[in-house]
Design a protein that fits this description.
Elements lengths: L5 E4 L11 H8 L26 E4 L1 E8 L13 H4 L6 E7 L2 E6 L2 E6 L7 E7 L4 E7 L2 E6 L24 E6 L7 E7 L6 E5 L7 E7 L41 E7 L7 E6 L17 E2 L6 E2 L7 E5 L4 E6 L2 E6 L7 E7 L6 E6 L5 E6 L20 E7 L2 E8 L16 E4 L6 E5 L5 E5 L7 E8 L5 E2 L5 E2 L5 E7 L2 E6 L3 E7 L7 H7 L6 E2 L13 H13 L5 H19 L3 H13 L6 H17 L1
Antiparallel strand pairs: 1-21, 2-29, 3-34, 4-5, 4-35, 5-6, 6-7, 8-9, 9-10, 10-11, 12-13, 13-14, 14-15, 16-17, 18-19, 19-20, 20-21, 22-23, 23-24, 24-25, 26-27, 27-28, 28-29, 30-31, 32-33, 33-34
Helix pairs in contact: 3-4, 4-7, 5-6, 6-7
Length: about 625
């Protein structure tokens, strides 16, 4: 599969390796499994329904579901099935702060109290239409992406008609949520192409500010009469059109990421401080310097031109961000948050639209998603390639991204269900790279990509189609629905379901995930979580961590049965001593257990480190 990867770096020219069409054709021949070729999966053939669809679940437990509140459901639903999936009433992304989940929508946002995950309580709704409602939160500030031309500065519902309207708002709204039941808009930063998504970026060297990287993907660029400095000329995607007769670059409102500075002491003064030209050709200065659009050869995808980043994930702890930029995946240096710089880029002939990105915790891998069909198409059917509308996993080696594998939801869906790779997050199991991910009406998939060349599913949840409709020719019509985002936060999985509402799930023990690993994941407790402002996962020294590492060593068969029994007895006794405040005795037992392990075997060495760290912590 490596031969099917086109790779360039910012240190070179625009030259690309020629793609072997035979390799791509072979990759495309790998189709999703179906009942004709594989053992039946319980997700196949689920009955349809808006709030009463059949479900299938494995190694997860559905703890709670909350229907969308009034004002967030189209008034013609459910009598009109098409209205159930109205994009203008769709739920979108989620952000978390303390015990609160902020669920975005094209109509505004909702706030839930999740202090008891099994009983999430709806606290308040904010009607503020404008799509798409991408959410992030920092302290008392909530940020929201707005891109539709009907959106207004005042959050009004009457629209903003006309080609030029100075009451129109497209950009990033900022709310004060210090009183979470009464959010107040305190700022609204206008941008030329609106805001499809945005990403918070922080720096330890600049604690007085946060930065927002704005991704505007709309083809509708505002007139300079409505917002100064906006321009969409020249049109089209021919890179040569973006150089003048002297070979000098022509700069437009495309091919950039706006950097918004937000002073925490005065958020009302937030403003764009840089237009980062992350797509520039380093040799010519041409702003249209990455993928120009089109296919990659016979049998390949037609890939969008790179004129914006759909979504950026920042990982401040390692000084990097990953941009899913329509036609490319890019690696970005964010050590200076005002002036991000591209350091590498890749293409994939199987990708139609680079959508989002996730690093593993070590920062040694990055996973990109492909939103083939724009999120509204049925792209998980049995006759469709398993490498299209999938994830692409890359190893990061010396600042470059090297392709490892694709991962796609491993079960076919129907033509009634929009299904393609979408938003997810890491599950904080130490020593493993595990991700929970939304696949729209493909449901939820939890998979392990520790071996980046061989990712494997370990849990899932799925509902049947929102509705089963056909056109006049009897062909299936897709009603928009399914999970937009599913994220792990404080021991549970939270899902924003486009048509149905808000879900809470929990992982359950299985052959592939020990209860000790589930328990230690729950110890990772963030004050807030914005998945695209990716936090470093740190596990405290604990018996939960020791038991998780013990389970992982046993799973890999690196410990003999006799040693296993001695270790288990010793760890249990140390735990009892610690409960009785006999910390020194507990520490001595833990060190004794550590001495029985082979430091040359990876999983045993990791267990020994966990035992020694806990012993040191106990004294």
């Amino acid at each position: 599969m490596q031969d099917a990867q086109i790779h360039t770096t910012s240190r070179g020219s625009r030259a690309r390796r020629v793609l072997a069409a035979a390799a791509v054709t072979a990759a495309a021949a790998l189709l999703l499994p179906s009942t004709a070729t594989a053992q039946a999966d319980p997700r196949e053939g689920l009955g349809a329904g808006w709030q009463d669809a059949e479900t299938a679940i494995s190694n997860l437990e559905l703890l709670a579901h909350r229907d969308k509140p009034d004002g967030f459901v189209h008034p013609d639903a459910p009598e009109n099935p098409a209205a159930i999936g109205s994009i203008n009433h769709a739920n979108s992304d989620i952000a978390f702060s303390g015990n609160f989940a902020f669920v975005g929508s094209y109509q505004g946002f909702n706030v839930y109290d999740v202090s008891d995950p099994a009983e999430p309580a709806h606290l308040t709704s904010v009607i503020c239409p404008g799509g798409q409602g991408d959410m992030t939160v920092f302290g008392d500030l909530l940020f929201m992406s707005v891109e539709q031309t009907s959106a207004r500065i005042d959050c009004g519902t009457q629209g903003a008609p006309g080609p030029i309207n100075h009451e129109r708002f497209r950009g990033v709204r900022i709310f004060d949520v210090s009183d979470v039941q009464h959010p107040v808009q305190v700022a609204a930063v206008q941008t030329c192409r609106g805001s499809h998504t945005h990403t918070l970026v922080t720096s330890p060297d600049d604690p007085g500010n946060v930065y927002v990287y704005n991704s505007g993907t709309s083809g509708n660029v505002r007139s300079s009469e409505e917002l100064a400095g906006c321009t969409n000329t020249p049109d089209g995607n021919d890179p040569e059109a973006f150089l003048d007769e002297n070979g000098e670059p022509i700069f437009t409102s495309r091919f950039m990421v706006e950097v918004i500075q937000v002073p925490l002491a005065a958020p009302e003064t937030a403003a764009v401080v840089n237009e980062a030209r992350l797509m520039v050709d380093p040799d010519t200065g041409n702003q249209h310097g990455l993928w120009p659009g089109g296919d990659h050869g016979d049998g390949t995808q037609s890939t969008s031109a790179t004129d914006a980043c759909h979504d950026i994930t920042a990982y401040p702890a390692i000084g990097l961000a990953a941009g899913a930029c329509e036609g490319n995946g890019i690696l970005i240096d964010i050590s200076d948050p005002v002036n991000p710089a591209r350091i590498d880029q890749v293409t994939d002939p199987n990708f139609a639209y680079w959508h989002s990105a996730t690093f593993n915790n070590d920062g040694t891998k990055v996973l990109f998603t492909d939103e083939w069909g724009g999120g509204v198409g049925a792209r998980c059917q049995a006759d469709q390639p398993a490498s299209w509308g999938a994830n692409a996993i890359f190893d990061i080696v010396d600042g470059t991204m090297q392709f490892a594998s694709h991962y796609k939801l491993p079960v076919a869906q129907t033509g009634f269900e929009n299904c393609v790779a979408h938003n997810g997050s890491l599950v904080p199991v130490p020593g493993r790279d595990i991700m929970v991910q939304a696949w729209y009406q493909g449901g939820i998939s939890v998979f392990d990509f520790t071996d980046s060349a061989n990712p494997v599913e370990i849990a899932f949840f799925d509902r049947g189609p929102v509705a089963e409709r056909v056109n006049d020719d009897g062909e299936p019509l897709t009603t928009l629905g399914g999970f937009w985002s599913v994220y792990y936060y404080r021991g549970h999985i939270y899902g924003s379901e486009i048509a149905r509402g808000f879900d809470v799930l929990a992982l359950t023990e299985s052959d592939q995930l020990d209860q000790a690993e589930i328990d230690v994941a729950g110890l990772v407790q963030f004050d807030r979580l914005n998945v695209q402002h990716q936090p470093e996962l740190i596990w405290p020294a604990s018996f939960e961590l020791v038991r998780a590492k013990f389970a992982q060593a046993l799973r890999t068969d690196t410990i003999s049965p006799n040693t296993e029994q001695r270790l288990e007895r010793t760890i249990d006794l140390a735990d009892r001593h610690a409960d009785d405040s006999r910390d020194r005795a507990a520490a001595a037992l833990l060190r004794s257990a550590s001495s029985q392990l082979d430091p040359t075997v990876d999983r045993q060495a990791e267990l020994a480190d966990a035992l020694d760290d806990l012993a040191d912590d106990l004294g």
